[in-house]
Write a structure and sequence with these properties.
mainly alpha, 6 helices, elongated
Length: 149
C-alpha cells in the first residue's frame, strides 16, 4: 500500500477514487479529460498492519466488503490433506502414503508457527505465508529425496 500523506490521502488510491467517481481520467500529455467506458474495477485488500495502510471510507464506499475469516486447524487439515492425498496416490509406495496424516499435521504445525512468529512488519512486509508456500516445500522434499521408513 502507498504511504499515507499528512492529511490521510494516498495518491494512487485517490487516483482510483477519481476514476470511480467521475468515470474517467486526465490525459497527462494534453491535459484533457478522457472518459473511460465499459470498465469494471475489482479490488481486494487485507486488514491494515504489516506494511498495509488502512483504506479511506471515501474509497471503500464504492465496494461491497466481504470479510473472510482465517481458516481454523480442522479446515486447514482437510484442505491440505486432500491435496496431499491426491499427490501421494501417484507414484508413491504404500509406506510413504501411510505418512500422509503425519505430513499434514506437521505441515499445519509449521505453518501455524510461521504465521505466529514471522508476522509482517513495515520493514519485513514480505513475511506473508500461506499453506501453499509450505506445501511446496514438502512437495520438493518428497520429489527429490527418498524417504526410508
Amino acid at each position: 500500500m502507498p504511504a499515507t500523506e499528512t492529511y490521510g490521502a494516498q495518491p494512487p488510491i485517490e487516483l482510483l477514487r477519481l476514476f470511480i467517481d467521475l468515470k474517467g481520467l486526465y490525459d497527462r500529455d494534453e491535459w484533457l479529460w478522457q472518459d473511460v467506458e465499459d470498465t469494471t474495477l475489482v479490488a481486494a485488500a487485507a486488514p491494515p498492519g504489516g506494511g498495509r495502510s488502512p483504506l479511506t471510507m471515501r474509497f471503500t464506499r464504492h465496494f461491497n466488503m466481504f470479510c473472510v475469516p482465517v481458516a481454523d486447524r480442522a479446515t486447514l487439515s482437510k484442505i491440505f490433506g486432500s491435496i496431499l492425498q491426491g499427490f501421494l496416490k501417484v507414484g508413491f509406495q504404500d509406506t510413504v502414503q501411510k505418512l500422509e496424516q503425519c505430513l499434514v499435521d506437521s505441515t499445519i504445525e509449521i505453518y501455524s508457527r510461521i504465521a505466529e512468529e514471522l508476522r509482517p512488519t513495515p520493514a519485513k512486509f514480505h513475511y506473508l505465508f500461506n499453506l501453499r508456500d509450505v506445501s511446496k516445500v514438502f512437495q520438493g522434499v518428497l520429489m527429490t529425496k527418498p524417504i526410508s521408513v
